[in-house]
Amino acid sequence: MVLLNTSKISKSYGETVILNDISFNVSDNDKIGILGVNGAGKSTLFKILTEEISPDSGEIYKAKQLKIACMQQHMEAFSENTAYNEVLSVFDNLVQAEKQIELLQKELETSSNEQLINRFHTINQKFIDDGGLTYKSRINSTLTGLGITDEQKSMPLSKLSGGQRTRVMLAKILLENADILLLDEPTNHLDIEAVTWLEDFLSSYKGSIMVVTHDRYFLDKVTNKIFEIENHKLKEYNGNYSHYLTKKQADREAEEKDYSLKEKEIRRLEGIIKQQKQWNREKSIKTAESKQKVIERIEKTMIKPDKTLDSVSFRLPAAEECAKDVLSCINLSKSFDKPVFSDINIEIKNGEKVFLMGANGSGKTTLFKIILGLMRQNSGKIVLGSRVKPAYYDQMQSDLDPTKTIFDDVHDFLPKLDNTTIRSALALFLFRGEDVFKEISTLSGGERARVSLVKLMLSKANFLLLDEPTNHLDIASKEALESALKDYSGTLLIISHDRYFINKLADKIYELTPNGEKLYDGGYDYYVLKHQSAPVQSAIQKPKTNDYKILKELESQKRKLKTKISKLEDAIAELENEISILNEELLSPQLASDYETLTQKTNLLNQKQLELQDKIDDWEISLQNLEEFE
Q: What share of the chain has pLDDT > 90, as a percent?
């Protein structure tokens, strides 16, 4: 079923065209990723769909009673509501229904009016059908899944950080039960765990989704269709991001080949026409006219391929040779007010592409600074190999001087380079002409990242330490960076949460933990696979010991949990059956005149519903605890 259809939508601001002749459908269960460079019109499209702005021309057709919920990229909320109550407002109809049910139950204690009984049953049944028995647990599980702690749930929004408020608003939108969700960069401010939860939620979401994101792994996991906005037009591709890449390349090659062949054919026909006209005979003139008509028919079918948008394009120079053993970290530990990590042992060989992962606060950036000599460890040893020349990409871009121009910042970093070399390098990163004299302080996050990458490229280092290098970059820039790093002959150590990026490059992954490191010989998918099959360090403390008694006790706890879950599932099924029977009995005409029995049944129904909610909550907690054992 088509939920939404746009026909020839166009939008301009003054003489600047944003969207031109955009047409598409959104159908049931479509999961659509929207791609396009910054300024392509993705946010403008969302504003048109939510009627925040009107198109200059074109039509939008929506299914009856279509509900659209939109999360904008920069969404703020400063309400004094707690995080929990802010999300609870989505279910105001259920909260009100609950209050009505309580009032009706009290009235039924003093009255056996048949009309009152029917009203109670109608409201109660709708409450159950609309999810009244589970909405509180859904709020809690959604907030928890997005990384909001129990303590933060009870805090006013005004006391939460900007990222936390964004997550609360995302939870609110996810639970609105909209037919179409519009999500603008929903993975911003989320760690990998929360992003993974969101992927699972959206993959099983019963409505349709349109999502703008630079997270390519997310697009692969969630989407079944890609809309690309390029040169003010929209082109549709079936499949996820990886399918889109393959299909786009094939389509472009086919379009260019078709256009080229038709151009050649036109030139051939024009040669024949010229020759026939020179002969100037009646027959040759007719031939020329005939060939001219053929050219006109071909020209009508010719579609000139869209010009390729400017994108970052660069190669890292071949690295100077160095020792085979590039880096050894031996029994490293670091503490500030409390321990950050201890007993870290890492070995990196020449030419390896190694990624560093770990929870926020695990000390990844701290480790980088220790390796670079910018910070001292509390114990342990760092050994850099002979002729190893490191260079550092700082995600905070602290290497940039905001008071300088782009050109001066690069020139002062590498004063021996001539102006032509610097300007040529900057041009590869789309800083051309007068752009090189922009002040660093006026640049966007993406532009600052590109300046730092220019300096990295020109440094001629053979050991690159990159801290979140894909942050702030659009997809085209990420792909250019991937390509350059893939061909780089030196050694890489990279901190990144970009799972697609990790999969593309990683030879191996080191995961930092408080008590050491774990090595994974593969990319992100391999890391996830091994994590799923490994015990999880969690709130349930699992001792690193072979003590038979302790292990026996853990196995006993695990068996008890499984037994408890099984019993809870049986109890939930039994309660649901009892509630169903009680609802049917309350409809009975005979009961309308039996006030005492009616009151008993009503109170019993209320009691059973409360018991069911308690059992469901207990089951969810027990299931989480069991997962921590697995």
A: 48
